[in-house]
Structure formats: C-alpha cells, structure tokens
C-alpha cells in the first residue's frame, strides 16, 4: 500500500483505482468529482459537504448526524422536516433556541436537570466502561471533558475575557486546528468524580453569567479577547456564544445517552 502525506495531489485523476479501506485525514477534496464511485460502507466524520451535488445517487441505510441546513432530497428541503421531528421527539429541544434572558435561564435549568439524570445513570456503569468508546465516538468521560473546554472557550474566554482559561483536562474537538497553549491530552484517564468536580465549577460559571443577563448584555458583543486559543482573538456576539454552549450541551447529552445504552448492553 502507498501512503501519501503532505503531498499536493490536486487535479489528479483516479480511474479504475481500488481505494477500498483507504483512510483520508485532513484532506482537501473541495471541487472533486466522483462518478460511478462505490462509497458503500464508507464513514465520514468532521467532513464539510457545503455545496455538494449528488445526482443518480443511491442512498440505502444511510445514517447522517450533524448540522443540516439547506439539504434537498429529490427537490424537497428536508431540513425543516428534520427539525420538526426532532422537536417532537424531544419537546424540551425547542427551549434551546431562546431569544431573551429568561429563555436562556430556562434553557440552562433544563440542561442542568437533564445532565443530572444522565450522570446518575452513568454511575451505574463499571468505571472502566466510562472510558470506553462506542463506534469511535468519545467516551463518557471524554464527553464531559469536552464540555469543560466548551465552557472555557465560549464563556470564560469569549465572554469573561480570560485569554487562557484552560484546564489540563479540557478536550477540544477532534478536528480542531492547532491551538497553541490549549491542553489536548486525549490519553488522560481521570475518574468520573474528578471530571464532575470540574463540570460543577464550569456549570456554576455558566449559571452565573446567564443569571445576570439583561436585554442589553445579551444583544451586545464581547470585549475583544487577545492571545491564541479558541475562539479566535476578537469580539463575539454574546448571544451566539451562549447559543453555542446550549447546543453543545444538548447534543452531547443525547450522544452520551445513546452510547450509555450500548455500554449497559455491553455490561450485560
């Protein structure tokens, strides 16, 4: 097998080539053309499909999870249909789209309540399984560590102005660009109680920030943050910073519940 790393293969043509089982990481394929290509069983993670057109495609038993906006299937925009169905399945999901300070406070109260139940459920697992991945996704512990990073990034750095609020156990997303000075220890194996102590501290910070929101502060931009990190240096809308936190908390709890189902089955 041939490995390609750091090479520019732009404009290359692959015809009658067998790439079965090939691995593509940090690859740019924008503008690429695929014709009569067998992608059955392929897995995409952290991929950007903006502006992709598929014609004559055969989609059978396909599972898509991600941010979907403007997806048309046979001429039908399915985005609103998906949103409506997700809201039907999870009635509290609509509260994650608040428009005023009280709405943000209600949304955060919902998240704290739901996460309490998820954590209590996780305590019923063998502690070893809390570090186990399901389907290549983050373990339960890694999910909690990522949410520590989310709070540090969007609340402590962006809103509160600390240029380097990072904890050593915080975990950026896997496809993140290089973030100088930001801890990124995927090999750490902290206990559940250690991570929960961090989570309680960060959740209290979010609760305090949201508790003090006014119409004016919610509509404002943050003071410019300096220094390397995430989000990038500059000013950011407070509303969008908090919405990012709500979205991350909501989605990752659903992922965690899904994986807990598999882990409990594995535990027997």
TrEMBL record:
InterPro entries in alphabetical order: 5peptide_repeat (IPR001646), DinB-like (IPR024775), DinB/YfiT-like (IPR034660), Pentapeptide-BTB/POZ_domain (IPR051082)
Annotated ranges, domain DinB-like: 111-255
Name assigned to this protein: DinB family protein
One matching Pfam family: DinB_2
Top-rank lineage group of the source organism: Bacteria
PANTHER family hit by this protein: BTB_POZ DOMAIN-CONTAINING PROTEIN KCTD9 (PTHR14136:SF17)
């Amino acid at each position: 097998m041939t490995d390609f790393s750091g090479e520019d293969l732009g404009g290359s043509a692959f015809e009658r080539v067998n790439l079965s089982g090939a691995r593509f990481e940090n690859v740019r394929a924008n503008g690429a053309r695929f014709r009569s290509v067998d992608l059955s069983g392929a897995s995409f993670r952290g991929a950007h499909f903006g502006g992709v057109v598929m014609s004559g495609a055969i989609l059978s038993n396909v599972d898509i999870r991600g941010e979907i906006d403007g997806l048309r299937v046979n001429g039908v925009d399915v985005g609103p249909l998906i949103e409506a169905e997700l809201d039907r399945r999870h009635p509290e999901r609509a509260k994650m789209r608040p428009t005023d300070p009280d709405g943000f406070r209600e949304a955060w109260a919902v998240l704290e309540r739901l996460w309490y139940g998820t954590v209590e459920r996780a305590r019923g697992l063998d502690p070893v399984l809390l570090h186990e991945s399901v389907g290549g996704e983050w373990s339960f512990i890694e999910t909690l560590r990522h949410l520590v990073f989310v709070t540090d990034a969007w609340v402590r750095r962006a809103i509160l102005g600390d240029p380097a609020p990072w904890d050593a156990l915080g975990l950026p997303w896997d496809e993140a660009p290089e973030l100088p000075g930001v801890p990124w220890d995927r090999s750490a194996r902290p206990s559940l109680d250690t991570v929960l102590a961090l989570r309680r501290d960060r959740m209290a910070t979010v609760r305090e920030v949201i508790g003090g929101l006014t119409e004016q502060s919610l509509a404002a931009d943050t003071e410019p943050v300096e220094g390397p990190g995430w989000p990038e240096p500059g000013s950011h809308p407070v509303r969008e910073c908090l919405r990012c936190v709500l979205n991350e908390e909501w989605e990752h709890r659903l992922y965690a519940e899904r994986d807990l189902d598999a882990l409990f089955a594995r535990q027997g």
